[in-house]
Each structure stands twice: as C-alpha cells, then as structure tokens.
Specification:
Blueprint (H helix, E strand, L loop, with lengths): L1 H16 L2 E2 H8 L3 H13 L3 E4 L2 E7 L1 H11 L4 H16 L2 E8 L2 E8 L14 E3 L4 H7 L4 H9 L13 H14 L2 E4 L6 E9 L5 E10 L7 H20 L1
Pfam families: HTH_IclR (PF09339), IclR_C (PF01614)
InterPro entries: GAF-like_dom_sf, HTH_MetabolicPath_Reg, Tscrpt_reg_IclR_C, Tscrpt_reg_IclR_N, WH-like_DNA-bd_sf, WH_DNA-bd_sf
GO molecular function: DNA binding; DNA-binding transcription factor activity
Length: 245
C-alpha cells in the first residue's frame, strides 16, 4: 500500500511541477531517490508520464493523465476549456477544428470538431502527427526550446510528400516566419490532399502545451482562406492560453 501511495504522490508532483527531475521530486516529497525512481519507472511503464522534451532525467504528464483528468475535472481540463473556443472557431471558419498536444516527439490529436461540409479531412482521436510536417507540429516547434529543435534537426527529417520540409535551414526559416505571423501552415506536407493552419497554446511557463488547427482538404486552402484561417486560429489559441494561465 505504501508503494502505491508514494507512486500517486509522485504523479501529483509531476503534474504540479512538470517538467521535473528525480532529485527535485525526492526533495519536495522527502523521499529517497531510489523510491522516487521506482515510482517514475512504474508511471512511465503504465503510460502516465514521459521524458520531457526527450530528456530522460525530467518528466511530464502524457495524454493518458490528461484524458483521465479532463473526465474527472469537467470544464477544468484542457478539453473542457478548449471546446467552446473550438466551437466558436468552427462556426467562424466552417471547417474541422483539431486540438493536439505534443507527446514523444509527435503531436497527438485529443479532440476534434467536424465541419458540416460533405468533403472534409478525417483523422481519429489519438492519431499522431509529425512535428516538422504538420501545422500543429510546426506551431509548437516555433515556440519550443531551441535546444529541442536543434536535437530534432540532428537526424534526417522524413519526407512524406513533395512539399515536406526536410532541409534544416529551410525549417528554421519557416519557424521564424511562424513566430512573426502567429500561425503555421501545412500545405500538403504530411498528406498531399490535406491542408491546415495552426497556432500554439502556451502554458504557465510560456512553453507550448497544445495547438489548435483549422483542417481542410487542400483544395480549400487558398491565398484568400489561408490568412483568414490564420488570424482566426491565432486569436482562438491566444484565448485558450489566457484561460489556461
């Protein structure tokens, strides 16, 4: 029973202080490092926590904890906070809206609101998107720790379509543009028939915790709709950021 309670205490502290390492957890909880380390291994194995930004010495919650928390906390969860904002964005754009969160070097879809239009994009909840080849991922990368971005660019970036950005310098330039405009655009870079415009949602520390996106068949991403979607999704993401912080 004591081991279970200690594990739950560790989970609560990770949620409150993420990203956090074993040493700080041990000091805060007044527990031996070995006890904390065992709890972290258990939580990692069960899928409740993950290495933060790829650093195995610091930990953060996964979407599993987020999903349980949003069901228990109702409107206090990320989904609950985001849904009315997503609904307003859907009404304004008349397109499908996605809420994604970064996890394990990808973006994971945790909520969506579908357009009423017969031709639409289709993606299941829990589906993951590449960071460098999705609007959601690029929006998050543009506001991520520069060291995390550099680590991503050390390895060869996978190419999914003819428009996928795989050159590190080109991607860095794209991220700079995203910071200037306030939104990211996917012009068929992951799937050639899908386009999207996304903006980052920031947490208390100013680090990206999610992104909102407007998702359309590529034929509906035009010179006219792209900036209009960008302005709308940027405003929605700012509203969600304000409510969460």
């Amino acid at each position: 029973m004591r081991n279970v309670l200690n594990t739950l205490r560790v989970l609560e502290e990770v949620a409150a202080r993420q990203p956090i390492g074993v040493g700080e957890l041990a000091r805060v909880l007044e527990l031996p490092k070995s006890t904390v380390q065992r709890a972290l291994i258990t939580l990692d194995t069960a899928g409740w926590i993950r290495p933060a930004s790829g650093e195995v010495t610091r930990w953060a919650l996964t979407t599993k904890a987020l999903a349980v928390g949003s069901r228990a906390g109702g409107d206090l969860g990320l989904r609950g906070m985001a849904l009315p904002i997503m609904e307003n964005l859907r009404r304004h754009t008349e397109e499908t809206i996605h809420l994604t969160v970064p996890e394990d070097g990808k973006m994971v879809l945790i909520e969506r609101l579908e357009t009423d239009k017969p031709v639409r994009t289709n993606m299941a909840l829990g589906h993951s998107l590449p960071l460098h080849a999705s609007a959601n991922g690029k929006a998050v990368l543009a506001h991520s720790n520069p060291e995390f971005v550099r680590q991503l660019l050390v390895n060869e970036l996978p190419r999914y379509t003819e428009t996928t950005i795989t050159d590190p310098d080109q991607l860095q330039a794209e991220l700079s543009t995203i910071r200037d405009t306030g939104y990211a655009v996917n012009r068929g870079e992951w799937r050639s028939d899908v386009g999207a415009v996304a903006a980052v949602v920031l947490g208390d520390t100013g680090q990206p915790i999610a992104s909102l996106s407007v998702n359309v068949p590529f034929s509906r991403l035009t010179a006219k709709t792209e900036p209009a979607f960008g302005t709308a999704v940027h405003k929605a993401a700012q509203t969600l950021t304000t409510r969460l912080t």
